[in-house]
Design a protein that fits this description.
heterodimer, A: 287 residues, alpha/beta, Glutaconate Coenzyme A-transferase, 8-stranded mixed β-sheet, 3-stranded mixed β-sheet, 8 helices, 15 strands, globular, B: 312 residues, 2 domains, 9-stranded mixed β-sheet, 3-stranded antiparallel β-sheet, 14 strands, 33% helix, 20% strand
């Protein structure tokens, strides 16, 4: 039915993040591609992983993609449905082993900005671009045992120092998180649409770890504002498997999560209804 | 509870009685169970200069901003998400259109703990979030201290006591015992922190039905001042066990929001142009509402509870 030889970059990113979720993880799932990456993980290699959502859903197994971190499917066939304060407290207590978050601007130590872009003469009160704010990203970045960042690689968005630290990464280097009183270990990886970055154990600086097909080291260097270091063991990414693609396409048949700019689409309500219903009717849950 | 107070009223009355110009307002729910119909009614009644206090609110906050009702937000996240950008939030903060919006921000856990402090009757709560972030630099109400017991830096957030909270739930009785299914958000604490609580619900049920499943009662009646039965209160957002998200409707609202003129004509059509939520539902059509309900009930029902057929 679906051609799994071809895949989109968003599907590749979804698969890459899904593979980072281990069978014994308790994973805090953020908005966007992580919503589907979590479902891919528990439907394929990590059936024991527990997905936790900010609204209070714990361990959901659903035939529908949650479109937000508090959508109805986040408690569909769940193990528990609790409060927002409770899941964040569980995180502060150390139960959340992995957090996945996104950002609009990131720096070489993995600090994230989702608050404001100042522009040339902007201020906090009247910035050039106002962004949504932290949501739970600051909390996840502070206290999840390890975190993964997802962001598209664009010139001007991978900078030396973010304009506004919404969510702390490794701050300005080794030892800084502990000194600040932060509980989690900070970002382990940045998954982009062109490559994957890791963080050096000693300097805590972001370095190039894995390339996607057709992307060169120079391409990546041109999009990054600092002198980028490259792993001596540079790898090429594994493409999504058929199983991973099948899950993504069944759960997101209209590409709301994995498509680009869904506000531009203009399907009718009936197209939406029929496509979503066919999508979930094709899914058998093995609980 | 035959002698319990009957707190039922209609939405128009609840908004006009409890929302005064210049007061602070909070909503329950997060993307799900947001009381959209309350935002429509606040805009329809042209309330002004409100302070909106929230962890995360999406469309219901965008509508209040677009309607020119807010002067200030205390929040962790205001946006649309999935289907697009928070154009109205951006326009207000970046350009002062329709009016400048003052932002005091925190994180979801920071706001959670503000509601918890309010609910516990304590002046503040400590959190291990927000440390070393620039959020603190722009929010004078967050204090970082050294733990007097020696564990290092810790952030303090101040109690929130909104003047009025609107919390939309699945079921409530006429005195305000409110039952929530699915995610709870911070609604248990918000109900205890706010000075006045208005429960809106999909269905009013007898107290005898509440008693059959008391663990589902997140909010007891003694926290509650008023109860309003508002079926499809959250449309186009979802309510667990009742209906799923109407994405095409949200997309139209987001597209209209790209320009100030666009959202004003959307507001004319969907808020000023309809008298109340009955008229809004009629304009949407029974068939469409049936379908968003089907997308939910095919997957997710509240066990042991017969959901009243509200349409057809």
């Amino acid at each position: 039915m679906t051609d799994t030889k071809e895949y989109s970059i968003a599907e590749l990113m979804g698969a890459v993040v899904a593979r980072q979720i281990r069978n014994d993880d308790v994973a805090f799932i953020g908005v966007g591609i992580p919503l589907i990456a979590g479902i891919v993980a528990v439907s394929t290699h990590a059936t024991g992983a527990i997905l936790v959502y900010e609204g209070g859903g714990i361990g959901a197994r659903t035939r529908r993609i949650p479109w937000t971190i508090s959508d109805n499917p986040t408690t569909d066939n769940a193990l528990a449905a609790v409060q927002m304060w409770r899941v964040f407290s569980d995180q502060q207590r150390g139960f959340i082993t992995l957090g996945i978050i996104g950002g609009a601007e990131v720096d070489r130590f993995g600090n994230l900005n989702t608050t404001v872009i100042y522009g040339t003469d902007g201020t906090y009160a009247r910035p050039k671009v106002r962004l949504p704010g932290s949501g739970g990203a600051n909390d996840i970045a502070s206290s999840a045992l390890r975190t993964i960042i997802m962001m598209r690689l664009r010139k001007g968005k991978f900078v030396n120092r973010v304009q506004f630290v919404t969510s702390p990464g490794h701050l300005s280097g080794p030892g800084e998180r502990k000194k600040a009183g932060l509980l989690g270990k900070g970002p382990a990886m940045v998954v982009t649409d062109q490559c994957i970055f890791g963080f050096d154990d000693n300097t805590r600086e972001m370095y190039l770890q894995t390339l996607y097909p057709g992307i060169s080291v120079d391409d990546v260097r041109q999009s990054v504002d600092w002198e980028l270091k490259v792993s001596p063991d540079l790898k090429e990414v594994e493409p999504p498997t058929q199983a991973e693609l099948r899950v993504m396409r069944a759960f997101d048949p209209m590409g709301f999560i994995l498509g680009e700019k869904s506000a531009d689409r203009s399907e009718s309500f009936d197209d939406f209804f029929n496509s979503i219903r066919c999508g979930y009717e094709s899914i058998q849950l093995d609980l | 509870m035959k002698d319990a107070e009957d707190k039922c009223m209609n939405l128009e009355e609840a908004v006009s009685r409890f929302v005064c110009n210049g007061c602070s307002v909070a909503y329950g729910g997060i993307a799900g169970r947001e009381p959209m119909a309350v935002s429509y009614e606040i805009v329809r009644q042209r309330k002004r200069d409100l302070t909106f206090i929230t962890d995360t609110t999406v469309d219901a906050a965008e509508i209040l901003i677009a309607g020119g009702c807010l002067r200030r937000v205390e929040c962790a996240y205001i946006w649309i998400g999935v289907v697009g950008v928070g154009h109205n939030y951006r326009r207000a903060v970046e350009q002062g259109i329709p009016n400048h919006l003052e932002v005091q921000e925190s994180s979801n856990y920071g706001m959670s703990m503000r509601f918890m402090a309010g609910a516990l009757g304590l002046p503040f709560m400590p959190v291990k979030s927000l440390l070393a972030s620039d959020i603190i630099a722009h929010n004078p109400d967050i204090k970082v201290i050294d733990d007097p017991y020696g564990s290092g830096p810790i952030a303090l957030v101040t109690a929130a006591h909104p003047d009025v909270a609107f919390i939309h739930v699945q079921r409530a009785d006429r005195s305000g015992n409110a039952q929530i299914w699915g995610m709870l958000g911070n609604d248990d604490n918000l109900a205890r922190a706010a000075k006045v609580v208005v429960i809106t619900c999909e269905e009013i049920i007898p107290t005898s039905e509440i008693r059959k499943i008391p663990n589902m009662t997140a909010i007891p009646s003694y926290c509650v001042s008023a109860v309003v039965e508002v079926p499809f209160c959250s449309h186009p957002l979802p309510v667990a066990g009742y209906y799923w998200m109407d994405i095409p409707f949200r997309r139209e609202m987001v597209n209209a929001s790209r320009t100030r003129e666009g959202i004003l004509s959307w507001i004319d059509e969907w808020i000023y142009g309809v008298k109340d939520l009955d008229a809004y539902r009629e304009k949407l059509g029974v068939v469409r509402l049936d379908k968003v309900r089907q997308l939910e009930l095919d997957n997710y029902r509240i066990p042991f509870i017969a959901t009243k057929e509200l349409i057809r």
